[in-house]
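Entry 14. Structure prediction run on the chain below.
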Amino acid sequence: MALLCILYVALALTPSSYSLAYEYLGLTPQQPLLGTARYIRTDEWMVFTPYIQIAVNNDFGQFNAHSAYHESLRTFQALPLQDWGLLFKPYHWAFFMLPAANAYSFFFMFMAMAFLSGWALLLRQLRMPALAAVLVSTTLFFAPFVQVWWTSNAGAFALAPWVAVAWLGIGHRALRIVACAYALAAWLIAVSYPPFIISSVLALAVLVLAVRRDAITVVRLVDAAIAGAIALAVFVGYFHDIIPIVRNTVYPGQRQSAGGGVGLTSLLAHLFPNLMTYRFAPLPLFKASNDCEIAVLGSLLPLFTLVLADGARLREWAKSHRSSLLILAAGLLFIACWIFLPVPAVVGKLTTLSMVPPARALLAFGLLLNIACAMILVHCGVRLQRWRLLLLAALLMVGSLAKFLFGEGQFSRLHSAADAIPYLCLAALAVAARRPQLSVHAASLVLATAALANLLGNGLFNPVQPAGPIFAMDRTAVLHSLQARGSATTTEGALVAPGGFGALLPGVGIPAVNHVLYLPQMDYFRRYFPSLPDEQFNFTFNRYHHITVAPEGDTPRVLQGDLVELPAKPLLAHPAP
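Output returned:
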């Protein structure tokens, strides 16, 4: 494993979809080495990766000196900056020791290893055997939900378990407080995205309360409070200048979510992971969704538990662990209510869930469900009897046939090779059932089968491509291409390019109005739209947003929560003083 990690970084490989940027920039199209670049991952290839380029091009300074906006690079998605916050960004230390391409590769490798080892160590603290912990951690890593959001939210997933690992696993009080504070601060700074943070905290709290109540002592709770206060001080100290700005934005600062809105079919997708998708794309009935929004943190573990768990041992185990099962069930029910039922936003405010859109709470639900099922399989064992395997085959067939209900009359492009993977897993279990020497390890075989299914099914959602070209873009060729497509320059030297480019243009070092702004740039835009009424101006520009340019029109428009369209004509006129 260590050799593979070293080779990955030495070859400067990344799971980025940035190869899609070449066509946008008018360059020769590129293809990944493995897999397919995903247009839907614009959060990564149009935003995060270009911002990494910007940080590198500015020699890791806090402000973008090559931008029309001179925006701060101290954002809620951690960038490699040469400031005191770097102490809490070990995943970015390589940028100061290696070429940028290898350092970016190291970032993703660090996060992948942090996820796999962190969740495995947490499961060990939850009294799961070592092999089972590694297999379940692998299953979670390759779950659809994690993979579709991974490249722009890796820190939110990978660093989540380390706070609990430090709190549960370290006996020395001072060391425990320091480790918990550091782990929590590093997690919060890595990706300060409340929906994933709150979902993870909720899942971790339920798991600890259900399985490790022995660790919930007054001393440890006091230590947790001290560590939390230290981490909060670090977080506020680092982001003190931008927290009030973001809090007062129209989006996302004033966004409040109510419960419900997620279809009950998503609940069934936790039993049948491919139920709503063709490969990764939504089936016709769910065409209003997309590859990311439709994903659940699914695996075959719940279905395996339902069919293969030893019923007699499960009933016996349940009697002696009644409180644990009740807590897990209550946690799942609570989260499910927020996801599927129309819970008023005021209730969400009391529980902080108003900051978690119900579709994002699927993270917490999936973590709890899969880990609970794994615990049942480990502690109660499995029975690979013929009738159970036949029942499992029948249920898999029901799941496959059910996809026709979501085709809206369409019978093609509903099933793909990924739909065959559960049947291959079933065949492997059937072979194992005929070998008595393997029955002793039946639970581990089932866990390994579930991990393999997720690896084969979702392992290449994110492609593999070399990072070298990302940091060696031909700026002159890009400029010539944009000029040939009708781009112009403002009186202050900023490029105005018709269309939307995310942060691609600033990423290659071109000062452009087309950008993605983490923080509002009110003063800049007021000079170009001085007559826009204050209320309309605030609604339009006081937000996180992509800036796209329209060749016609006179008034800026909000096309969606994070997308603002500007007319080219006012931008090319002389700005107000």
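The chain has a mean pLDDT of 94.
Filed with the rest of this week's runs.
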